[in-house]
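Structure first, sequence second, as always.
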């Protein structure tokens, strides 16, 4: 896991904030809430509530505590997140 700090933004989802920082994050479906590859773990800070689109994605899946789709979630204040990393990354 990679821990990063992100600034609040009501106009860009967390996925875009991460991409703007040129930090690698998978987003196979292009932010359409259908692949789940963009998921992050919110460590601290307030984020937007799950939309019906995101809730629909998690239905029937094992969602861990504080796990969110970064393409569907907005940071309401500065936040810390954990990013999943590829197996060969430390
Ligand atoms: S980019 Fe596919 S679910 Fe977020």
């Amino acid at each position: 896991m990679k821990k990063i700090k992100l600034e609040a933004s009501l106009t860009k989802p967390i996925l875009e904030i991460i991409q703007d920082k040129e930090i690698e994050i998978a987003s196979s479906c292009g932010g359409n809430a259908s692949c789940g590859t963009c998921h992050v773990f919110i460590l601290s800070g307030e984020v937007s509530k799950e939309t019906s689109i995101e809730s629909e994605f998690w239905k029937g899946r094992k969602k861990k505590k504080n796990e969110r789709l970064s393409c569907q979630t907005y940071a309401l204040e500065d936040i810390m997140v954990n990013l999943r990393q590829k197996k060969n990354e430390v």
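Margin note: The chain has two helices and four strands.
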